[in-house]
Amino acid sequence: xxxxxxxxxxxxxxxNGYLYKNxxxxxxxxxxxxxxxxxxxxxxIHQNHMVHRxxxxxxxxxxxxxxxxxxxxxMGLCKVGNSDETKIYGVMxxxxxxxxxGGHYTQTADIYSFGMIMYFxxxxxxxxxxxxxxxxxxLDICNEIRPExxxxxxxxxxxxxxxxxxxxxxxxRQNAFKIEKIIWFLRPTTNKQSHWFNTDQPKKPKNxxxxx
Length: 212
Prior knowledge:
Helix 2 packs antiparallel against helix 7 and helix 4 (about 105-125) packs antiparallel against helix 6. Mean pLDDT is about 80; it is low at about 210. The chain has a single domain (about 15-190), classed as Transferase(Phosphotransferase), domain 1. It contains 8 helices and 5 strands, in the order βααββββαααααα. By secondary structure, it is mainly α. It has helices at about 15-20, 30-45, 95-100, 105-125, 135-140, 155-165, 175-185, 190-195; strands at about 15, 50, 60, 70, 80. The radius of gyration is 17 Å and the shape is globular. The strands form 2 sheets. A 3-stranded antiparallel β-sheet has the order 1-3-4. A two-stranded antiparallel sheet has the order 2-5.
C-alpha cells in the first residue's frame, strides 16, 4: 500500500518570516539563543554522520510564532557521511567555495552555511542581497569575497566566530560542538554585558517571503 509521512506544523514559519513577525523583540539574547538552537540541531545531524547540503534560513523553521523553538527542515538532500556527489544544491550565498569549485559536500560546508546564517541574524539581510546569484558572484565567493560586516553591527568576538565559519579553508572552520560552546559563552549574563551587546537592531525585512 501507499505510505503517508505526517510532519509537525511549524506555526512560526521560516527564519525570515519569524524575524518579520518578531522584529521588535529580537534582541541579542534571543539572537544568540536561536543560533545555539540551530547549531545544536546541525550538530545532531553531523553526529549522525550526515551532511545537510542545503542549509540556509529558508530551511530553519520555528515551531511557534512567539517562542524560540527551531527545527531544521528540508532533509531530503541529506547524505550519510561526507558526500562524493559534486552537483551543487542550495542557495548560492550559502554554498561553500569548495563546493562551488566542484568539490564534495562535507560537514564543513554546512558550517560555512551557518556562518551566513550568523550574518543574517546580525544584519537582518540576506548575504549578498544586492547581488545577482550568478557566475560572477560564485567567482567572487571563490576569491574570498564575503558580505560586508563591521563592528558597530556586532561585537568583535561574534564577527570573529562568523568569519571563522566562512573561512575559505574548510580545515580552519570550527565544528558544530565548538561553535555551540563559543556562542553559549557569548550570551550576555549581566546588565553591563547586555549594554555591550545593545547594538542597533536590523531593519524589519521588507518581504517575509524573500527566502523560500
